[in-house]
Amino acid sequence: MTTNRNRCKQPRRRTTTVVTALLGAALLGFTATPMPVSANEATLPLGDSDLVETRSSETLAQGVTLTRIVRGTEPAPIDQIGDTPRGPWVVNVLTIDPTQSKGHLAATYGPDLAGVEKTTDLVREADALVGVNASFFTFTASAEYPGDPVGLGIYGGRLLSEPTGDAAEADLVLDAKNHKVLMGQLRWTGSVRNAQTKISLPLEYINHPPVVPDPCTDLPDPTQCADSGDTVRFTPEFAASTPSGPGVEVVLDSKGCVVRTTTTRGTTLAQDQTSLQATGREAADLLAVAQGCVKHSSSLQDEAGKKIPLRPGTFAVNGRYRLVKDGQIVAPSGSDSFFDRHPRTIAGTTLDGKIVLVTIDGRQTTSVGTTMTETASVAAALGMHDAVNLDGGGSTTMSVEGSLVNQPSGNEERPVGDALVYIDRTFDDR
Predict the structure, then answer these.
(1) Please, are residues 127 and 3 in contact by the beta-carbon 8 Å criterion?
(2) What is the distance of C-alpha 231 from the center of its chain?
């Protein structure tokens, strides 16, 4: 995605109103003027029913509202964060009404896909009004490529990371031009085919370092490896250079014709080039197919098998687990720590088409976080008809005009792989 880092921004006019369910939240450093709760507004289904809940709403732009909810007034004992019914909880809710707003929602990443950058920086660089962290990403599993999305990633109509096929993956697809949102588990297939021989080879990944089978590491000729390997397509957006190591790499020009072939991996791609890497026994298969010119095929489908069109206004990020589907809570329960109380980031839509982005602070005495079940209940209580759980934990961040809105759980804001940002102007697909 192209961003303008030097664009001057006009100050935005904001309007603040406050609604409180009960009095006070001063111990959390949050003050608000008490006002009666409207008859149709319910408190969050978190903890004991007698907890103090305070809400403060701020209009960031036409059709864009930020609401801060604080439930509970007493800081939690540090040894009770994981199970206390007294909270407290701090929840930030961004609501975008496409029928009133002038802007659009998009997904963006830093200088390259494989790197990481803070959400606050991503918001500034996109000249966005507000943003939240988005996809699950490689993080500490790869020191060299920490920002590599673990699942679907589409930016400005370019499919730069494929869905994993994991049953837990729940993807969020945006149509920035028409303000439409799709959620679900997407499926992808890809292949390359020789233009003359018609021989084809399936692709395992897009912009993801291929797996090198152990027996291949000691062979002088990686094409002789008998074990299986991967075939991966790389684009210039991935990193300054493609992953290096044993295997083969074929660089293609914009027409799919071979520019160069090497029997080791790792190269720098020009903006109009792509490459194919293969390891294990697939290295020999790639060498046989990638001669002359090849045609790349890619198909992305939704849960119903309908093809997802990739237009300039298409953006997508990956999450883990649907929280709400067609108005019903569908979040699973689990026994591992992922399902325990953590900071959470949620994306969802209401029945009347509003888009909602939420952060729930956690792992702190001032906000304990939510389990997966509690997260789904919050999404439903906030009126979401459909919702997905985005990356959370130390990644959970909301930023307005490059300034932090929430309190990340670590000592400082964590760099992330990508972010969802609201840009307060009409999407231009030219």
Answers:
(1) yes
(2) 25
346: CB partners within 8 A, 6+ apart: 323, 356, 357, 358, 359, 360, 375, 378, 379, 384, 387, 388, 389, 390
Write out the H or E segment, with its range, that includes residue 355: strand 355-360
Predicted confidence band at 219 (pLDDT cuts at 50, 70, 90)?
low
Decide if pLDDT at 397 tops 80: yes
C-beta neighbour count of 224 within 10 angstroms: 12
Return the CATH class of domain 189-298: mainly beta
Q: How far is CA 112 from CA 186, 204, 416, in A?
A: 24, 21, 12
- CA pair distance 54, 371, nearest whole angstrom: 21
Those residues whose C-beta lies under 8 Å from the C-beta of residue 249, and which sit 6 or more positions away, are: 242, 261, 262, 264, 265, 266, 267, 275, 276, 277, 278
Cα 84 to Cα 295: distance, rounded to the nearest angstrom? 58
Element holding 55 (H helix, E strand): strand 53-61
d(CA 348, CA 132): 13
Whether residue 40 is predicted with pLDDT greater than 60 in this model: the reply is no
Alpha carbon 426 to its chain centroid, in Å, reads: 22
Q: How many angstroms separate the CA atoms of 269 and 235, rounded?
A: 8
Task: Kindly state the average pLDDT of the residues 205-223.
Answer: 75
Confidence of residue 33 (pLDDT cuts 50, 70, 90): very low
Which residues pair with residue 233 across a beta bridge?
Answer: 206, 276
The first and second tokens of residue 370, run together, are 């939510």
> Does the pLDDT at position 268 exceed 60?
yes
Distances (CA, A) of 61 to 99, 101, 179, 241: 13, 7, 17, 40
What pLDDT is stored for residue 103 in this prediction?
97
SS3 290: coil
pLDDT at 29 over 70: no
Tokens of 192: 């390359």
Helix, strand, coil proportions of the chain in percent (round to 5)? 10, 35, 50
Cβ pair 262, 229 in contact under 8 A: no
Residue 296: predicted pLDDT: 96
Domain ranges of the chain: 1-185+310-430, 189-298
- Residue 21 predicted with pLDDT over 80: no
